[in-house]
Amino acid sequence: MTEAIRVHEVGGPGQLRHESIEVPAPGAGEVLLRQTHIGVNYIDVYFRTGLYQAGSLPFTPGLEGAGEVIATGEGVSTVEPGQRVAYAGGPLGAYAAERVMPADRLVPLPESISNEQAAAIMLKGMTAHVLLQQVHAVRRGERVLIHAAAGGVGLLLCQWASHLGATVIGTVGSPEKAELARANGCDHPILYREENVQERVRALTGGQGVDVVYDSVGADTLMVSLGCLARRGMLVSFGQSSGKPPAIEVGQLAAGGSLFLTRPSLFDYIATVEELKSAAAAVFEVVRQGRLNVRIGQRLPLADAATAHRALESRRSTGSTILTV
User: Fold this and answer.
1) 181 lies in which domain range?
2) From start to end of the chain, where are the E strands?
3) In Å, how far from its chain's centre is CA 235?
4) Is residue 132 assigned to a domain?
5) What's the total number of domains in the chain?
6) Which residues contact 101 (CB under 8 A, 6 or more apart)?
């Protein structure tokens, strides 16, 4: 038996129940993992509310964790018992002290990366890597707009984009978050509750707009994001923390200046073992170099997963949120 968070009915944070469950032995190609740290991500909220389908009820949420291999199934040669590993992606089930994972979705951790860092940065860090270097390859001198700049992904995007030589503009909800974003590479934090974001972006860019917008907010920001783009700019819509993004007529992209719109999913960029290892290695390297600071804003025991979700949904949280076992 092991402790885990189970969802028996989709809904609010109260649906996250702390229970004891049976853990099966690892089958062929699988690993039994004892977790120490679990990453909390907004996609976990989507599964809990039913926006994304988990497949069946009850289920254990979570897509990111780090820990130690304690047993391997038949045919596993890539990892061994006692080895530290981490992962980001399916199958669901990260909110547990022990779990079974496919061996080929685990990434061995270098000595320079702690379990806590890995659980805070695997999903968010690889997301930042993919967004900044594959979805739109940010170049020195470009101007970028990052919504939710003080959030878990937002802080990493700010740091990494600044490292790449971009001018970074970010939206935040409070003066405290503005200072946090500024300390992490955001040149121009915008208080979206007090300022007109589109007007401010135009003023900061001499009326031209930004080359790319990274929008994880969705319903509240998508049209504003389009209005912030320069001619031939790209809107990268990769989340919907405020709700489903509105529909856009194709003609709006032409009217805005031959704009581009994309809706990437990290999991399409780390679908193969090679892609996964390459993305993880890129993240580990910038952390090792000190170019990416992993900020953990909240640490909570696994049993308090509901508290973590409430903080995330209320936008009170900053940086990464970690559940500990």
Assistant:
1) 140-263
2) 2-7, 16-21, 30-40, 64-72, 84-88, 98-102, 107-108, 143-146, 167-172, 188-191, 210-215, 229-237, 260-262, 296-301, 320-324
3) 18
4) no
5) 2
6) 30, 31, 33, 87, 91, 93
Percentage of residues in the chain with pLDDT exceeding 90?
A: 92
Domain's final residue, options 216, 242, 263: 263
62-79 pLDDT, tens digit each: 999 999 999 999 999 999
Residue 314 has pLDDT above 90, yes or no: no
pTM score, whole prediction: 0.92
Joined tokens for residue 177: 């978050």
Nearest Cα residue to 72 out of 44, 31, 15: 31
Residue 278 belongs to a domain? yes
If you average pLDDT over residues 145-166, what whole number do you get?
96
Distance CA 120, CA 88 (A): 10
Give the CATH number, domain containing residue 295.
3.90.180.10
Taking the C-alpha atoms of residue 66 and residue 86, their distance in angstroms, rounded to an integer, is 4
Residue 299 domain-assigned (yes or no): yes
Is residue 217 a part of any domain in this protein?
A: yes
| Residue 229, pLDDT above cutoff 90 | yes
Amino acid occupying residue 3? E
Query: β-strand 2-7 against 16-21: which pairing, if any?
Result: antiparallel
**pLDDT at site 316:** 78
Residue 315 clears pLDDT 90, i.e. is over it: no
* 284 pLDDT more than 90: yes
